[in-house]
TrEMBL record:
The active site is at 263 (nucleophile). This is UDP-glucose 6-dehydrogenase. It is an enzyme of class 1 (oxidoreductase). It comes from Sphingobium ummariense RL-3. Substrate binds at residues 152-155, 207, 252-256, 260, 324.
Length: 437
């Protein structure tokens, strides 16, 4: 199959490279000149484990190419994916669909022969209808079908997720799209991945309902963690105790500083807006959004409390900036709110992240970036672990303590044992691990 991927970001690039790896002929398109130039010269604009090798292999095999020329690529394609960003619209939280609609317009004018246009971007219910309307209006002669195929991959494990998905959801309104989409994913369902066909609106809603559910699960365990701290219980054991129940499941029950990243915050907000506008408000998600928002600054108050209620003029080292490990993605990372709240309280911030510092630099003001965790901790009153990178999981705690001026360690991911941290001389605090009275 000849496939065009419109948008070569985290989703487009991974999907494009994986589809090429299945044997399809894929052209990845982007408007960003720097991204395309870098890809054409053998570089990779994002950090995602395994992606550089996967791209190199498929470029070498002649199945994967990169271009800015969408209009020139579409006429040869059997399938054109739209994988552009759908950020929260400034001011009201609705998904900003302007990139999707611009792409649809551009694609429409160069369609040639029957083509399936597939929204892989996360888009609100009804977007497929509008994409179809735009294409018909722009090019009344075009032979096409519009399908919805939301992406469920996680950054940091994106290739594995794309190649071994729990399910592939495809929403169609035109039966001509079915055999085409079956052919796109044929190599996958030979591995038993269920390919689920639904109506287009249902498919669009599945993505939001899934993300909002996961965000709610994380938020639930974060509230339980808060309670654990008050009553002297251990949230990790509570999570294990409930997670072993198959009806609940153990995933997404890790208490921490609140969810972040490029999907959960904007997708929960967008679902709240869609539900409100449709007269069927989803109060559980409205509350999830509010709890999560306040949690991030509450984490800064936790740090301040551990520093005897005062961080003015003190140095606080923040270890881990990205919203989760194994990505360089800084969009809506909890570290941004935590650092801002600590700065508001007068702290000086030194920070370190294994992959995220380049993306973090323009998003953070008055932060000193260090070359490693120990360098970041030099002279600090407190160290805060925000992201559980492997490289931060086995720090030499006595060495860390040795370079600091103070002795506070706040571990927002519960990666250290309290007794070990205390034995290294730290005043240690973590999340949801209360002391029995
Ligand atoms: P991204 O910002 O990394 O990438 C989007 C890319 O599209 C950018 O490189 C941009 O330059 C390009 N673009 C915009 N308009 C274009 C146009 N008209 N023609 C060509 N290129 C264009 O975004 P992302 O993280 O890859 O997310 C894309 C979509 O996938 C979003 O809707 C997101 O919600 C969804 N999604 C993301 C993830 C994730 O983990 N990042 C997971 C599942 C779904």
């Amino acid at each position: 199959m000849r496939i065009v991927m419109t948008g070569s970001g985290y989703v487009g690039l991974v999907s494009g490279a994986c589809l090429a790896d299945f044997g399809h002929e894929v052209v990845c398109v982007d408007k960003d000149e720097r991204k395309i130039a870098l890809l054409q010269s053998g570089g990779v604009p994002i950090y995602e484990p395994g992606l550089a090798d996967l791209i190199a292999r498929n470029v070498e095999a002649g199945r994967l190419t990169f271009t800015m020329d969408l209009a020139g690529s579409v006429p040869q394609a059997d399938v054109v994916f739209i994988a552009v960003g759908t950020p929260a619209r400034r001011g009201d939280g609705h998904a900003d669909l302007s990139y999707v609609y611009d792409a649809a317009r551009e694609i429409a004018s160069s369609l040639n022969g029957f083509t399936v246009i597939v929204t892989k971007s996360t888009v609100p219910v009804g977007t497929g209808d509008e994409v179809e309307r735009i294409i018909r209006e722009t090019n009344p002669q075009a032979q096409f079908a519009v399908a919805s195929n939301p992406e469920f991959l996680r950054e940091g494990a994106a290739i594995q997720d794309f190649k071994r998905p729990d399910r592939i959801v495809v929403g169609i309104e035109d039966e001509r799209a079915r055999p085409v989409m079956e052919e796109v994913y044929r190599p996958l369902y030979l591995n038993q991945a269920p390919l689920m066909f639904t109506g287009r609106r249902t498919s669009e809603l599945i993505k939001y309902a899934a993300n909002a559910f996961l965000a709610m699960k994380v938020t639930y365990i974060n509230e339980v963690a808060e309670l654990c701290e008050r009553v002297g219980a251990d949230v990790q054991q509570v999570a294990r105790g409930i997670g072993l129940d198959n009806r609940i499941g153990s995933k997404f029950l890790h208490a921490g500083p609140g969810y972040g990243g490029s999907c959960f915050p904007k997708d929960t907000l967008a679902l709240v807006k869609t539900a409100e506008d449709s007269g069927a408000p989803i109060r559980l998600i409205e509350t999830t959004v509010a709890i999560n928002e306040s949690r991030k600054r509450a984490m800064a108050r936790k740090v301040i409390a551990a520093c005897n209620g005062m961080v003015r003029g003190k140095t606080v080292a923040v270890l881990g900036l990205t919203f989760k490990p194994n990505t360089d993605d800084m969009r809506d990372a909890p570290s941004l709110s935590i650092i801002q709240a600590l700065q508001d309280a007068g702290a000086c911030i030194r920070a370190y992240d294994p992959e995220g510092m380049e993306a973090a630099r323009p998003m953070l003001r008055d932060v000193t970036f260090a070359s490693g965790p120990y360098e970041a901790a030099e002279g600090a009153a407190a160290v805060v672990i925000v992201t559980e990178w492997d490289a931060l999981r086995a720090l030499d705690l006595p060495r860390l303590k040795g370079v600091m001026q103070g002795n506070v360690l706040v571990d927002l991911r519960n990666i250290y044992r309290p007794d070990v941290a205390e034995a290294a001389g730290f005043i240690y605090d973590s999340v949801g691990r209360g002391m029995p009275p």
